[in-house]
């Protein structure tokens, strides 16, 4: 599905006027501080339930207000739903946050829903912003987040398994921190923890394998010299030549001293190596950014194969990317058939984004003082 209507209330500097978007490409340009990122951030709220740039909801509420709302209308996009025409709204999503009451309200088609995954399942959003480097250069948590995004969209039940595992891990950590270790209680937590860890790892591993196949096919197609010699490997969070139960039993004393769980899915990672060395130590920033975008496109193609359309939010496409890399990525996003929002400070030139080919369907917007004007 694609987001074809957006309306916000009290969201940063954005105007409350409704906007219609293309289910294909949307090019947004405007001066610094005009509101381009805020538009992407509002769209991101509908698919992620949070801001992709700040951790506090408070920051996005317009100054002097205490509550913001974002409404979105989705069309059938290229999803095989058999419902509606392209551009015709078939699902409505809404999120409102009252920061004074600390209350979030979620709606799908007018009905209140409790879980964010109900929104996320309708609108898979993939963000490519200046923070995207973290997937390569940041800690393992960023790569787990990257992988789990695809895992969730492949297997929605992953969200609840993960939450259960977090609860059990927290109970287990409390038991580890107790002065006198209660071995029998710990064994109960271990049994639950290992069962959940194995379920999580199984779906992570199979999604990673799928991702790797898509990524390698993409890299072969784009034929960029520096991608040769890249190696991606999934690390589940423990040495799987031994069972997790044995590892936990063998490291009781170490975990008791540290006061928390040291082995399992909370330690999982994707290891990215180039000619045997970590990519973060070898690649330039432009190469790192291109690599992460290719990884995100590969994830998009997994969903696309499942008949789901991803909405890509590409903030400031020009930062770090030369014309050749920009064109290569724009062309790949196009062949994926996904919905894309691209922002830039300068007026975007479709001939530069898609050189030597006819530009895809797009709508162009000028952003000024939080207001979008279509050109
Ligand atoms: N809570 C808020 N209430 C009102 N205005 C806000 C709030 N938060 C930020 N702003 C203002 O909203 C404007 C939009 O910021 P935004 O980051 O979306 O701009 P941008 O067009 O992406 O800029 P740049 O090109 O510099 O990245 C800025 O002028 C900012 O000062």
TrEMBL record:
Entry GO CC: cytoplasm
Pfam families: SMC_N
Nucleotide-binding listed as a keyword: yes
Main location group: cytoplasm
Subcellular locations according to the entry: Cytoplasm
UniProt-recorded Gene Ontology molecular function terms: ATP binding; single-stranded DNA binding
Binding residues for ATP: 30-37
InterPro entries cross-referenced by the UniProt entry: DNA-binding_RecF, P-loop_NTPase, RecF/RecN/SMC_N, RecF_2
UniProt keyword annotations, A-Z: ATP-binding, Cytoplasm, DNA damage, DNA repair, DNA replication, DNA-binding, Nucleotide-binding, SOS response
Gene Ontology biological process terms, A to Z: DNA replication; DNA synthesis involved in DNA repair; double-strand break repair; SOS response
RecF/RecN/SMC N-terminal domain segment(s): 3-347
Keyword ATP-binding: yes
Stored NCBIfam families: recf
Function (record text): The RecF protein is involved in DNA metabolism; it is required for DNA replication and normal SOS inducibility. RecF binds preferentially to single-stranded, linear DNA. It also seems to bind ATP.
Family: Belongs to the RecF family.
Protein name stated in the entry: DNA replication and repair protein RecF
Organism lineage: Bacteria, Pseudomonadati, Pseudomonadota, Gammaproteobacteria, Pseudomonadales
């Amino acid at each position: 599905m694609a987001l074809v209507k957006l309306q916000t209330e009290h969201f940063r500097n954005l105007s409350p006027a409704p906007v219609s978007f293309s289910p294909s490409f949307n090019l947004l340009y405007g001066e610094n501080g005009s509101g381009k990122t805020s538009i992407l951030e509002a769209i991101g709220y509908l698919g992620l339930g949070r801001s992709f740039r700040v951790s506090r909801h408070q920051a996005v509420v317009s100054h002097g207000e205490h509550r913001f709302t974002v409404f979105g209308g989705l069309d059938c996009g290229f999803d095989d739903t058999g419902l509606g025409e392209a551009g015709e709204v078939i699902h409505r999503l809404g999120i409102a946050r009252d920061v004074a009451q600390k209350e979030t309200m979620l709606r799908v088609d007018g009905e209140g829903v409790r879980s964010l995954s109900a929104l996320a399942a309708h609108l898979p959003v993939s963000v490519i912003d200046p923070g995207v480097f973290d997937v390569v250069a940041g800690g393992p948590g960023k790569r787990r987040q990257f992988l789990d995004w695809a895992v969730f969209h492949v297997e929605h039940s992953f969200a609840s398994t993960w939450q259960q595992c977090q609860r059990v891990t927290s109970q287990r950590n409390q038991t580890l921190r107790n002065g006198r270790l209660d071995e029998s209680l710990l064994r109960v937590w271990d049994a639950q923890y290992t069962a959940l860890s194995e379920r999580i790892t199984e779906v992570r591993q199979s999604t990673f394998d799928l991702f790797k196949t898509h990524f390698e096919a993409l890299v072969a197609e784009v034929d960029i010299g520096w991608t040769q010699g890249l190696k991606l490997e999934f690390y589940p969070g423990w040495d799987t030549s031994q069972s997790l139960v044995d590892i936990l039993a063998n490291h009781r004393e170490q975990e008791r001293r540290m006061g928390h769980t040291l082995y399992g899915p909370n330690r999982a990672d994707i290891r990215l190596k180039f000619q045997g060395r970590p990519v973060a130590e070898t690649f330039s920033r432009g190469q790192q950014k291109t690599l992460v975008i290719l990884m995100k496109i590969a994830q998009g193609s997994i969903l696309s194969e499942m008949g789901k359309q991803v909405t890509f939010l590409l903030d400031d496409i020009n930062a770090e990317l030369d014309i050749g890399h920009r064109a290569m990525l724009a062309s790949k996003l196009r062949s994926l058939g996904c919905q894309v929002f691209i922002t830039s400070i300068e007026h975007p030139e479709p001939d530069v984004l898609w050189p030597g080919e006819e530009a895809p369907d797009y709508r162009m917007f000028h952003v000024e003082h939080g207001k979008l004007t279509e050109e």
